[in-house]
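Practice problem. Given the sequence and the SMILES for zinc ion, write out the predicted structure.
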Amino acid sequence: MKVLISVDMEGVTGVTHPDDTMPHGADYQMYRRFMTRDADAAIKGAFDAGATEVIVNDSHMTMRNLLLEDLDPRARVIKGFNKPMCMVQGIDDEVDALVCVGYHSCSGAEGGVLNHTLLGKEVQNLLFDGEPIGETRLNALAAGQFGVPVAFVAGDDTVCREARTVLGEDLPTYAVKDGIDMLTASCLHPQVTYEGIRTSVADALRGVADRRPHAFPGEHSFAFEWNSTTIAETCAYIPTVRRSGPRTSEFRTSNMTEAMQVIVAQLLLAMQVGNVDFYS
Ligand SMILES: [Zn+2]
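Answer key:
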């Protein structure tokens, strides 16, 4: 069994504030250790369940957060950015299960700790066929194209609910904290979550044969609602992307690999042109 573990940071044990997740934040160095521990617990859980190969993809911001020497040496780690499949780099049809750790809820999710979709400031919503989706569903769609199911999601209680709503109420999840506000949560201790993630991942992977890939063959629409008219304008310079509203850019594709690449290209443009303090 080959397992891909995608590790984001906002849904890591104890994380509640941008200072915890941004490389120059006051508590970032501590919380990247917490992120590494949550990831290590998932790796160990995967091997407990009989995995023969585990790939870990660092999926947060610079994608250079995980402390390699503190992770189980049986796993390989993909670090750095750019990478065309973004949060699910390493996915292919040899992978048997996608495990999501440190995940957070969709932009605008009430009570979701550090809720956002891909970029906290620039992206108001990412729409799939007109419906807002979060990173969990986007990555599930990308994995689904390769026939790979999501086996497990860990993060705050809101992303766990979101994942079960989208991927099935029987999806195994583990909440490391319960959100009170976007910047506030009631948190479990890292020793508790380490055991919780390890045993939950192991149980989830033992039952992975029951999970179905989140695949939607055929052509679909992806649209970004940006916070800025200039971002929408610039994204429409990409040949397959059209401006479908003052602050909206949209494209259609039947290929999730292409979808991820066009999404990543737009995010890079948005970070470049959207960096205007007041006007949007
Ligand atoms: Zn994220």
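Check your answer against the key. The longest strand covers residues 173-181.
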